[in-house]
């Protein structure tokens, strides 16, 4: 291995819950990203859901998937679609979770935590696990190298027509990913994806494969920018300034297979911006990153250069009133004989109202039912805890108003 390769950023995917497991399995079956390799852990409180995920990936890996890539945690079978139960299951088995992450990841630079926000297991456990890492683990399985690992969270919003409880979970999950209960920052970076915004199927909500393919394409472009590139953007770049200005929620915007001979670079950025993964106003973004992946022969021939990308991005930002937004660009080569160019925009610190508008009424409706004594089985969410969750999200959104 060359010294260049030794400097590559290593990622690990930690997926929790059924939805997170579906995303993780597609990383195995539809992606060959050397930044991730086989460092993927699937966690669930329900063994049947883990079995479904493992069945999808077992023919792609050489070792025992149950031994290295799967973890059943908590003493209950399932979280009952309530995030508090998922959180308590993670608290109960935190030592085992940390041990599984440590055994599989080695000295990983960044964790990508994947969960769907409408459910209970992933939505409950992932924000809690990140919080425990960030606040300093008190567990026998803790390794010192974990203290400097960056935590990015991939958070998938439920379909807008789903039940009020799932919208309630989503609002609470977003708040808990963004901020810990004391109001401090939790995840270093929160990548938001809305199912309804990406799916062509607005009626059944079953086309997860289509949504997950787009997610994986965006993650491949994001991670690739930290490897063999002209003008490197890496995970530290993605999180440093956004954390300083309190604008660390993002959404990808992607356009692929664009004809590099036919289209101007600024047009390519426009096409990507049209495909943002959540409803948003691009002009409210406070942070913007651009990753352009082009065939290596086009880069070597000077058909696309780093200054070309930077100048076009500056013009694109000027057009959208974003010259004051922080950001960087990267030009990444790919082995391809075509002239097809792929573009990723990472848009951060934007106004969250267009996304939250789809769920806030249902959040309020479900909150009222809880205050009226709605039974949640053994799960408990105190009025003070819920108030902190709501206040943390409201304060964060005020910092990032349009």
Give a description of the structure.
- It is a single chain.
- The chain has 17 helices and ten strands.
- The chain has 402 residues and is α/β, with parallel strands linked by helices.
- It folds into two domains: 9-226 and 355-399, Tubulin/FtsZ, GTPase domain (Rossmann fold), CATH 3.40.50.1440; 252-353, 60s Ribosomal Protein L30, Chain: A (2-Layer Sandwich), CATH 3.30.1330.
- It has a ten-stranded mixed sheet, sandwiched between helices.
- Strand 1 (11-16), helix 2 and strand 2 form a beta-alpha-beta unit.
- It is globular.
- Residues 1-5 have low confidence and may be disordered.
- It comes from Halorussus gelatinilyticus.
Q: What's this, in brief?
A:
Helices cover 44% and strands 18% of the residues. With 402 residues, it is α/β, with parallel strands linked by helices.
């Amino acid at each position: 291995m060359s010294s260049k390769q030794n400097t590559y950023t290593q990622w690990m995917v930690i997926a929790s819950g059924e939805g997170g497991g579906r995303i993780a399995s597609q990383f195995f079956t539809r992606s060959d990203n050397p930044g991730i390799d086989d460092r993927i852990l699937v966690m669930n409180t329900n063994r049947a859901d883990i079995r479904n995920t493992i069945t999808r990936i077992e023919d792609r890996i050489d070792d025992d998937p149950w031994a290295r890539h799967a973890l059943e945690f908590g003493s209950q079978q399932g979280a009952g679609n309530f995030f508090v139960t998922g959180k308590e299951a993670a608290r109960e088995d935190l030592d085992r979770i940390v041990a599984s992450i440590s055994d599989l990841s080695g000295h990983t630079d960044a964790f990508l935590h994947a969960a769907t926000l409408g459910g209970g297991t992933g939505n409950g456990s992932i924000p809690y696990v990140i919080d425990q890492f960030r606040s300093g683990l008190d567990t026998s399985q803790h390794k010192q190298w974990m203290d400097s690992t960056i935590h990015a969270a991939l958070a998938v919003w439920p379909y807008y027509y789903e039940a009020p409880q799932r919208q309630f979970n989503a609002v609470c999950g977003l708040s808990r990913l963004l901020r810990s209960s004391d109001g401090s920052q939790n995840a270093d970076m929160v990548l938001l994806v809305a199912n309804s915004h990406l799916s062509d199927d607005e009626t059944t909500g079953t086309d997860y494969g289509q949504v997950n393919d787009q997610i994986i394409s965006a993650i491949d472009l994001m991670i690739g920018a930290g490897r063999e590139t002209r003008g490197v953007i890496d995970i530290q770049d993605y999180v440093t300034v956004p954390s300083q200005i309190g604008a660390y929620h993002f959404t990808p915007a992607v356009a692929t297979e664009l004809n590099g001979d036919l289209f101007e670079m600024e047009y390519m950025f426009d096409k990507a911006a049209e495909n943002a993964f959540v409803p948003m106003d691009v002009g409210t973004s406070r942070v913007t990153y651009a990753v352009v992946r082009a065939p290596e022969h086009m880069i070597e021939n000077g058909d696309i250069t780093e200054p070309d990308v930077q100048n076009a991005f500056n013009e694109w930002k000027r057009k959208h009133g974003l010259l004051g937004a922080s950001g960087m660009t990267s030009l990444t080569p790919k082995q391809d004989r075509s002239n097809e160019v792929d573009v990723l925009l990472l848009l951060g610190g934007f106004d969250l109202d267009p996304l939250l508008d789809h769920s806030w009424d249902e959040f309020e409706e479900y909150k009222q039912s809880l205050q009226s004594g709605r039974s949640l089985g053994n799960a408990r969410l105190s009025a003070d805890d819920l108030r902190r969750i709501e206040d943390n999200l409201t304060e964060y959104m005020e910092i990032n108003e349009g």
